[in-house]
Amino acid sequence: MVKAADRAKNPARSSVWLEKRAARAGGGPAGLDRDRIVAASIRMLDEEGLGKLSMRKLASELGVTAMSLYWYVDTKDDIIEFALDAVYEEIDLAAVDAAEGWQGRVRALALAYRRVLVRHPWVSPCVGSYLNIGPNALAVGYKIQEAIRDTGLPLHGRPGAMSAVFQFVYGYGTIEAQFGRRAAEAGMSQDDFYTEAVAAFRDDPEFAEQIADMKEILDERASHGSVSAIWERDFAYALDILIAGIEAKAAPST
Asked: Tens of pLDDT along 172-186?
């Protein structure tokens, strides 16, 4: 596993997936294994976020001593890397393969990735903090590259196309997840939170001038009746635009 000192010394080459950990003598603690540790860590991360995860709290959740965890992992970062890769398994790659054409595969991957980001709000900050080279993440990455390759774009254009789609999904899913968490922390539904938030500045005379130019689109969004409907509609339309752009770029010039 990756020691904390090694991560600090060479973070660009530090990953639990690059280390070859020597087997420890004897058997591990009864009833405990890495899968249980990872599943419990994901539950805690979903409920409390990255800042609240600790070896002590995780051990308590599992009903073991903190020292028992060190049989399987050396640091909290090890656990986060394992948890991060585990959630990528939620992306159904068989469903991606079954989708029609590269457009269908890109849509399936984009929607599944967004759902992961929304379901697990702690994933977003982890994506850029770790190498993210676990087996599930690499399998998803391969499917993304495969779909973009089949667009017919030249090699030099494929990274840009991947970035356009999946960095959009990352940003969209991150904002959606954080909005949902903020509403939950306030003890409100997303619909009520959105209504109150918009009303807070629409009703303030100091914002009257700025609101005048935004009234049309604010009224349009309010007409959908629910925040979830807005999330779904805007995501689908934005993805349509990106796919149309890729099709245009990939079309043979006349």
From this structure: 999 999 999 999 999
